[in-house]
Amino acid sequence: MTVAREAGVHPSTASRALSGDPATRDGVAAATRTRVEDAAGRLGYRRNRVGASLRTGRTGVIGVLVPRITDIVVALAYEGLDARAREDDYVTLVSGTQEDLRTRGERIEMLLDHGVDAILFSDGHLDEPHAEDTWPVPVLPFMRTAGDRGPVVALDDADGGRQVARYLLGLGHTDLGVVAGPKATSSARDRARGFTDELARAGIRLAPGRSVHCAFDVEGGKEATARLLDGAGAPTAIFAVNDVTAIGAMSAARARGFAVPQQLSVVGFNDTPLAAELPVPLTTVRSPLRAAGAAAAEAALEAVAGREPGHRVLPLELVVRGSASAPRPTT
């Protein structure tokens, strides 16, 4: 009532102007809405989300489950997700699952207890069991496939792998290795598959042992690269399916006396902020991570509104820097 009186409007008009629902707010004339918002600001008004949820049946909260909060790829996607949610006056609650399916189930229950309208999760595994859709709110995978459920938004990972293969083939590399990431993640699988499919189209197949799975971290990249370089005859180029494992690959190469790119070319994936700042700037595939997060939030909002969220695949581009060059001729 106080805000309505200050703005000189009916209480129902003030309520609609300050609603958390954009469609309801837009039903109030722009000049009137501005007058109400100014009055609310002068009076220090705060919208009562609990009271609003009792009226609308919605809490204005989206839960977000990620493998690890410290992962830079996850953090960049979350920034875009949170920003898009705020546009519709939503807040987000984020929690890490450590790639554990039981932990994810516990976190989903926790978020439901906190009254969320939807849940997005980016820790999907290819081998997880079929999930019955019994949750009281939409629970949607993004960025990765979860069992038999495709993500509502994904990167065109296979095409990114194809771009890397074409680039390295164009430089003259034919003896290649792959730091292939975790076997159970669709993003790692699709990047490696796109890469090897493109090689096959050029009549080239990876030699046995030239594709090594590992964790999505620096140590995983180091260990996988050690296996590639310590065997009989090292490849001339390595494709690491994310930038963090590529950094591990470059570290392992340096420890073994391989100069990058003179003796070993390395290409990563995602173009995280550190990639351009390394002592040897990393050639990598640029992923629109913030846009992917925003698209995931959009899908969740569509699901909350009762619409089919669909499926979006975002295009990628190769960014050429200094970590790959033509192979040295053998003497």
Strand residue content: 5-15%
Determine the structural class based on helices, strands and strand pairing. alpha/beta
Oligomerization? single chain
The CATH class of the largest domain is identified as Alpha Beta
Instruction: Tell me the CATH superfamily of the largest domain.
Output: Response regulator
Could you tell me the mean pLDDT? Answer: 90
State the order of secondary-structure elements, H for helix, E for strand: HHHHHEHEHEEEHEHEHEHEEHEE
Q: What's the helical proportion of residues?
A: 40-55%
Q: Quickly give the CATH architecture of the largest domain.
A: 3-Layer(aba) Sandwich
Q: What form results from the Cα inertia axes?
A: elongated
Uncertain spans, ≥5 residues at pLDDT below 50?
50-56
Say how many strands there are. 12
Strand order across the biggest sheet?
Answer: 2-1-3-4
- How can the largest sheet be summarized? 4 strands, parallel
Describe this protein's structure.
The protein is elongated, with a radius of gyration of 24 Å. β1, α6 and β2 (91-96) form a beta-alpha-beta unit. It has helices spanning 2-7, 11-17, 22-26, 30-43, 49-56, 72-87, 101-113, 157-171, 186-201, 218-230, 243-255, 289-304, and strands at residues 61-66, 91-96, 118-121, 139-141, 153-155, 176-181, 211-213, 237-240, 265-267, 284-286, 312-314, 317-319. α6 (72-87) crosses α12 and α10 (218-230) crosses α11 (243-255). The longest helix is centred in the first third of the chain and has 16 residues, at 72-87. By secondary structure, the chain is of the alpha/beta class. 43% of the residues lie in helices and 14% in strands. It has a four-stranded parallel β-sheet, sandwiched between helices. The protein has a four-stranded parallel β-sheet with strand order 7-6-8-9, sandwiched between helices. Strands 5-11 form a two-stranded parallel ribbon.
